[in-house]
Amino acid sequence: MTGWLVAGAALLAVLGAVFYSRWRTARLLARLDEMLAAAMDGSFTEQRFDESRLSALESRLAQYLAASSVSAQNLQAQKDQISALVSDISHQTRTPVANLQLYAQLLAEQPLGPEGRACAETIETQAQKLQSLIEALVKTSRLESGVLALHPAPGELAPMAERAAAQYAPKAAAKGLSLTVGPAAGSAVFDPKWTEEALCNLLDNAVKYTPAGGAVTVSVQVYELFAAVRVRDTGPGIPEEEQAKIFGRFYRSPAAYQTEGVGIGLYLARQIAAGQGGYLKVESVPGAGSTFSLYLPREG
To answer: pTM of the full predicted structure?
Structure first.
């Protein structure tokens, strides 16, 4: 009888140890899950997780998440400082740049020789380029820092495509290009203002790099999850080794160094696409033109 009691007590002790071990494991996993959830929603603080109550694994994770939280805060602070700096630069340079453009126009109206007129035109061109660069930098920094938020909403893509094409129709006609809007029926979830900005950047590049007599086409193709707004041109195309680089900030192809531009339009377009849950893709063959596709989600 005593042997049975001893065996029963031993069995109960083993079962208790097993249940206790499982309880500790479940508790540990629950605590780790709580920590990760807090880190993901930005509410993690060391005060919420008292280190004296944590296991070694929990303690290490808490230290890692605390360091990551500090790094994220420092990164956000740096982005805010850069955004403020760019805004200050924009504000301080607005009047000087406007004066440069004004005096360049006044100078061009004066009786000048060929060299003087060429200099006046160069001053005006460079002033416009500087203004475009500053505006693009302000937009990019505000998007990156979250100062300017995107507000995607369901809408039809055709009106936006037609508005963007209408803006570049005069420039295309002056260069002898055919600019048309193909099939554009379809809807997506997008911010009309900023998506039009991205599309205009794609059109600007297409018109800029397509030689006289060429064609630029805007169209929409709808898929199950995304709608693609495409800008197709008959320009020189982009070598495969450069196709990943062209979306970098300020990247300029060696073959395009004489072409007007600052190398930030595609970067900004990609930021706008990514900010709406979409992406930007290029397909190009040297000598056969390029197609830039702006993919936008069909559901929010």
So the answer is: 0.61
User: Which single residue is written with the structure tokens 């009309």?
Assistant: 192
> Is pLDDT larger for residue 277 or for residue 104?
277
How long is the chain?
300
Residue 210: name the closest of 180, 243, 186, 183 by CA.
180
Distances (CA, A) of 18 to 12, 55, 56, 98, 300: 10, 19, 21, 78, 47
Question: Is residue 222 scored above 80 in pLDDT?
Answer: yes
R_g over Cα of the chain: 29
CA distance 83 to 75: 12
Sheet harboring 215-222: ordered strands across?
A: 178-181, 215-222, 226-233, 290-297, 279-284
For CA atoms 15, 16, 20, 21, the dihedral sign is negative
